TrEMBL record:
Protein name per the record: GATOR2 complex protein WDR24
Annotated keywords: Autophagy, Lysosome, Membrane, Metal-binding, Repeat, Transferase, Ubl conjugation pathway, WD repeat, Zinc, Zinc-finger
Organism: Callorhinus ursinus
Chief place where the protein resides: membrane
Assembly with partners or alone: Component of the GATOR2 subcomplex, composed of MIOS, SEC13, SEH1L, WDR24 and WDR59. The GATOR2 complex interacts with CASTOR1 and CASTOR2; the interaction is negatively regulated by arginine. The GATOR2 complex interacts with SESN1, SESN2 and SESN3; the interaction is negatively regulated by amino acids. SESN1, SESN2 and SESN3 convey leucine availability via direct interaction with SEH1L and WDR24.
WD repeats, residue ranges: 116-158, 203-245
Family: Belongs to the WD repeat WDR24 family.
GO biological process, one term: positive regulation of macroautophagy
InterPro entries: WD40/YVTN_repeat-like_dom_sf, WD40_repeat_CS, WD40_repeat_dom_sf, WD40_rpt, WDR24
Length: 790
């Protein structure tokens, strides 16, 4: 939709009037140029070459320069320029390598004036001298630049850039003899038209082809360049070496760049592909455009300010076959849609937060940010009130500092170096890692490792012979010894029948809490044994309601009413009738140690106390009939890993992945695992933990991760004698047939770690070279080179 605002600009007695408008062309345009009085514009392309008058309300076609019965390649234009001193003089660059001049004052229909056919390939750019009426410069795909005198029929000078194709040439506005040229290889050259043999200056401006350049109309030494690297750079050419003073990062390759008249820091750009918009940048604010024109629907191929002293009107041609006049007042301002909020972490953990000033409450206790206490990592430039973008978008900045020492990452390094990830049974790995985390004060992580051990490691049984206080032989019993409880360090003076009741809320005088060091011994079918740090808070005995009670048997405080040491018959199935009068404790101890005791007798005997310090109670009935399989907890473990990863502790997530292996890896998608591995490896390498990083890569089962330590591992070795490359078949050089890896100190072949001097190529065993260089700085091979080892 056309915008109806109108601007009138006074220029030395004449006035420019107009509005935002466009007209449809017969074919896509490749370039445009405006005449001296800003009243006409010429549009050139492969299939179009016309002149339009710029009126107040519309474009009006005035002249079609494509005349003749047969189409000629001379009319297929890659560039066009209108002389700023002679309103009747035009020049075009043809795709067949011909430079054509046009004289609009000729009375015939064919306005073609002269043809220059010296270029061998497509001519990319033509440029008239700003003050000399007869000088024309061209740059071609063949790598040559030619200067033509229009009063002659051939070129007067040829400039060879000794490089790839020339993409742009521009005469300096202030220096009469100077012009700039840009090349495909990223170089920019400055030439003096009086010296065609060599350039005056050359420098690399972009990482890739430089497509365009433009001299500043006011600052004599400023040159703007645009390239395929999506950057616009402003160079100060008045210094001895070209100095980059501004850099604007765009979103696509820059095809055209034009300084805005009467605005020292503004320039317009358009893209070669992808982006169809035209942007006007303030080079002092390189990240957000000052204005944006969005009228075109295809790539913009040419832009030109309507008058060299009027900053309000911009003309453009596009591949969408439209010619547009843009009014700067109607341009959209991206800064109005910019996000005023921002969040960023500093190098040492400080947090900077920017938000709209209206949203940030003023706090009396807030103090101004004086910069980082260690290094000045944040700078804020005071804005000049005269700058055009002041007030368009502003934010209040808050910086939150961390307490000194709280951002230390020593725990990460210690954990990475001390963790055990492979080479041991799972239970030992979990116990070791839990111990490491506990010693570093990471109690939650330590508890997680302990829970993983409980989930994935079945509780085992230590053999009865290894227990000093065990009296029952599990292997000799008819029924396996399922659970035994060892109660230690009981308080003196307790009654013989002490109970722990968890089902009732009452407080009883004979209640005793079990010590946390009590050891749980389970059946010997399992392989693992719970450590002494697991609280033994299990209860068993006579049933009251739905809970079991544990009776503590103590021979020194035997209750007179209970002379017998036995359990109710419901505790285990009977094989035969139990003797009514059981023997005394001492007799039972001797009998239990006898190899001829039967299974039932051993069960009964195991109920007797062993000594006065503790009592051992054994039953052959399991406390729990069933045990949940590890797969039951898989979802919970996966949630735990994601929790640690979201908290930023990717070290824990990767470590558990490696330790548990296939137990949990199958439940987490490959992409998530790869992301965790990559993040952890990156952190390890940032802390220079190369060995740990390589171990993590080696233990990974992800193909994308396991190949990381297999890339860039080729070591190219030259023979220390003939300096020729060595083959990979051994230590003997194929050319001189001598051992290349000979130690210069001990004169033996080095088959292990080899260190050599990069200056003289001599070396040897690491320890030998280190010891040698402690006393002498000269090469041990006697070559006279001063070797260094660091």
């Amino acid at each position: 939709m056309e915008k109806m605002s109108r601007v009138t600009t006074a220029l030395g007695g004449s006035a420019l009037t107009g509005r935002t408008m466009h007209c449809h062309l017969d074919a896509p345009a490749n370039a445009i140029s405006v005449c001296r009085d800003a009243a006409q514009v010429v549009v050139a392309g492969r299939s179009i070459f016309k002149i339009y008058a710029i009126e107040d309300e519309q474009f009006v076609e005035k002249l079609n320069l494509r005349v003749g019965r047969k189409p000629s390649l001379n009319l297929s234009c890659a560039d066009v320029v209108w002389h700023q001193m002679d309103e009747n003089l035009l020049a075009t660059a043809a795709t067949n390598g011909v430079v054509v001049t046009w004289n609009l004052g000729r009375p015939s229909r064919n306005k073609q004036d002269q043809l220059f056919t010296e270029h061998k390939r497509t001519v990319n750019k033509v440029c008239f001298h700003p003050t000399e009426a007869h000088v024309l410069l061209s740059g071609s795909q063949d790598g040559f630049m030619k200067c033509f005198d229009l009063r002659r029929k051939d070129s007067v000078s040829t400039f060879s850039g000794q490089s790839e194709s020339v993409r742009d040439v521009q005469f300096s506005i202030r220096d009469y003899f100077t012009f700039a040229s840009t090349f495909e290889n990223g170089n920019v050259q400055l030439w003096d038209i009086r010296r065609p043999d060599r350039c005056e200056r050359m420098f690399t401006a972009h990482n890739g082809p430089v497509f365009c350049c433009d001299w500043h109309p006011e600052d004599r030494g400023w040159l703007a360049t645009g390239g395929r690297d999506k950057m616009v750079k402003v160079w100060d050419m008045t210094t001895h070496r070209a100095k980059e003073v501004h850099c604007v990062q765009t979103i696509a390759s820059v095809a055209r760049v034009k300084w805005r008249p009467e605005c020292r820091h503004h320039l317009a750009t358009c893209s070669m592909m992808v982006d169809h918009n035209i942007y006007v940048w303030d080079v002092r604010r390189p990240f957000v455009p000052a204005a944006m024109f969005e009228e075109h629907r295809d790539v913009t191929t040419g832009i030109a300010w309507r008058h060299p002293h009027d900053p309000s009107f911009l003309l453009s041609g596009s591949k969408d076959s439209t010619l547009c006049q843009h009014l700067f007042r109607d341009a959209s301002q991206p800064v109005e849609r910019a996000n005023p909020e921002g969040l960023c972490y500093g190098l040492f953990g400080d947090l900077a937060f920017a938000a709209k000033e209206s949203l940030v409450a003023t706090e009396s206790g807030r103090k101004p940010y004086a910069g980082d206490r260690r290094h000045p990592i944040f700078f804020k430039r005071k804005l000049d009130p005269a700058e055009p973008f002041v007030g368009l978008a502003s934010s209040a900045l808050s910086v939150f500092e961390i307490e000194p020492g709280s951002g230390s990452m020593s725990w990460f390094v210690d954990t990475a170096e001390r963790y055990a990830l492979a080479g041991r049974p799972l239970a030992e790995l979990c116990d070791h890692n839990a111990k490491v985390a506990r010693e570093l004060g990471r109690n939650q992580v330590a508890q997680t490792w302990t829970m993983l051990r409980i989930i994935y490691c079945s509780p085992g049984l230590a053999s009865a012979t290894s227990l000093n206080h065990s009296v029952g032989k599990g292997s000799s019993c008819g029924l396996p010894l399922m659970n035994s409880f060892n109660l230690k360090d009981m308080a003196p003076g307790l009654g013989s029948e002490t109970r722990l009741d968890r089902s009732k809320g009452d407080t009883r005088s004979d209640t005793v809490l079990l010590d946390s060091s009590a050891t749980l011994i389970t059946n010997e079918d399992n392989e693992e044994t719970e450590g002494s740090d697991v609280p033994a808070d299990y209860l068993l005995g006579d049933v009251e309601g739905e809970e079991d009670e544990l009776y503590l048997l103590d021979p020194e405080h035997a209750h007179p009413e209970d002379p017998e040491y036995m359990l109710p018959q419901e505790a285990f199935p009977l094989r035969h009738e139990i003797v009514d009068t059981p023997p005394g404790p001492e007799h039972l101890q001797d009998k239990a140690d006898s190899p001829h005791v039967s299974g039932s007798e051993a069960d009964v005997a195991s109920l007797a106390p062993v000594d006065s310090s503790f009592s051992l109670l054994s039953v052959s009935h399991a406390l729990h009939d069933t045990r949940l399989p590890p797969d039951f907890f898989s979802a919970l473990v996966c949630d735990m890993l994601r929790f640690y990863a979201e908290q930023g502790d990717v070290q824990m997530a990767v470590s558990v992945l490696i330790v548990l292996g296939e137990r949990v890896r199958k439940d987490i998608d490959e992409q998530t695992q790869e992301h965790w591995y990559t993040s952890y490896i990156d952190l390890l390498q940032r802390f220079c933990l190369w060995n740990v990083s390589n171990q993590v890569v080696k233990l990974s089962t992800s193909r994308a991760i396991s190949c990381l330590n297999q890339a860039s591992t080729t070591l190219h070795v030259n023979c220390s004698h003939c300096k020729r490359p060595m083959s990979s078949r051994g230590w003997v050089c194929d050319r001189c047939h001598r051992c290349a890896s000979m130690c210069a100190v001990c004169h033996h072949v080095v088959k292990g770690l080899f260190v050599w001097c990069q200056g003289c190529s001599h070396g040897g065993h690491l320890q030998h070279i280190m010891k040698w260089l402690e006393g002498s700085s000269h090469c041990p091979a006697g070559c006279g080179h001063l070797c260094e080892y660091s």
